[in-house]
Design a protein that fits this description.
Blueprint: E1 10-12, E2 19-21, E3 25-26, H1 42-54, E4 59-61, H2 70-79, E5 87-92, E6 94-95, E7 103-104, H3 108-122, E8 127-133, H4 150-161, E9 165-171, H5 175-182, E10 187-193, H6 202-211, E11 214-218, H7 226-238, H8 243-254, H9 267-274, H10 283-290
Parallel strand pairs: 3-4, 4-5, 5-8, 8-9, 9-10, 10-11
Antiparallel strand pairs: 1-2, 6-7
Length: 298
């Protein structure tokens, strides 16, 4: 039996019974190249999921548009029947045509079908948390863009009232969009891009922490310039750690409402990622890392 390890403490989603270990697992990399099609090695993907749960991870982030369908099917193959404390968080709001692109899918029919697809592929009667993924202004759906969430969120709220969803969250949104969403339903988590080099959500994270709402950053090493990467590598070398471990440890120390979902298709990399929870950054390291954002190429 594998002994569970330190996973950064816990966080309870607001007004819920869901207590998550702060280091979770993001399942996006279990699909094929470009998050499209099957992985080269399904047994390896199954092994990573089983190892994650054996090590104590109880928060898995996924989506039916990873693959599409494939990631959720692998999760079911690996873990069903699910451990009682396992919380699966999925996202809706996009679809993947045959060309592998990312297309907004937020009509009532799109969202209803997406929820039923997630339920079927995961083998569940109810999804713990569903994030409405707002498709931004960039061609791949990334990047923030203002716009009303009322229509799609109302659809998801109705599905929640039908007993298909326990709790709702948001992804790729602004504080203004959160405020609008909170007039419609309770929001338990927000998932946005945030890392050492991209810190536009600093004030937003603090606002969410005051409300007891979880913040789950994605792309922990995304968009670093060469200069920024060099600064991170220097800090990692001084701490005898990897750059990803340092970046994840910084996120854990940034705010107690931050939940991590690093992804990998390798058991070895999974274990390496989880060591970030044991990495305590000294004040000088934190100061040096905080300076990385100022080194962006303008």
């Amino acid at each position: 039996m594998i002994e569970p390890i330190n996973l950064g403490g816990t966080f309870t989603l607001p007004n819920t019974s869901l207590t998550l270990n702060r280091v979770g697992y993001g399942a996006m990399q279990l699909a094929g190249k470009g998050v499209f099609g099957p992985p080269r090695d399904v047994p390896a993907a199954v092994a990573v999921l089983r190892e994650a749960v054996a090590l104590g991870i109880n928060h898995i982030d996924t989506s039916n548009f990873y693959g599409p369908h494939i990631t959720n099917q692998i999760i079911r193959q690996a873990l069903h029947p699910y451990p009682e404390d396992l919380v699966i968080v999925t996202k809706v709001g996009a679809r993947r045509p045959e060309d592998g692109s990312w297309v907004p899918a937020m009509s009532q029919q799109d969202l209803t079908e997406a929820i039923h697809d997630n339920l079927r592929n995961l083998g569940r009667d109810m999804i713990d948390v569903v994030n409405l993924r707002w498709m931004g202004g960039m061609s791949d759906g990334h990047g923030l863009s203002e716009g009303s969430l009322a229509e799609p969120l109302t659809t998801l709220t109705e599905l929640k009232e039908q007993g298909l969803i326990r709790h709702l969250g948001l992804s790729n949104v602004t504080p203004k969009q959160l405020a609008e969403a909170q007039t419609i339903t309770e929001i338990v988590c927000v998932q946005n891009e945030y890392n050492l080099a991209h810190r536009s959500d600093d004030a937003f994270i603090d606002q969410l922490a005051q409300q007891g709402i979880a913040y789950t950053p994605f792309f922990p090493l995304g968009g670093f310039s060469p200069l920024q990467s060099s600064a991170l590598e220097s800090t990692a070398m001084a701490l005898n750690a990897t750059p990803l471990q340092v970046a994840l440890a910084w996120l854990l120390q940034r705010s107690p409402n931050i939940l991590l979902i690093p992804g990998t298709s390798s058991v070895d990399h999974l274990r390496e990622n989880l060591k970030s929870a044991d990495l305590k950054l000294p004040p000088q390291a934190v100061k040096d890392l905080n300076a990385i954002v100022a080194q962006a190429v303008r």
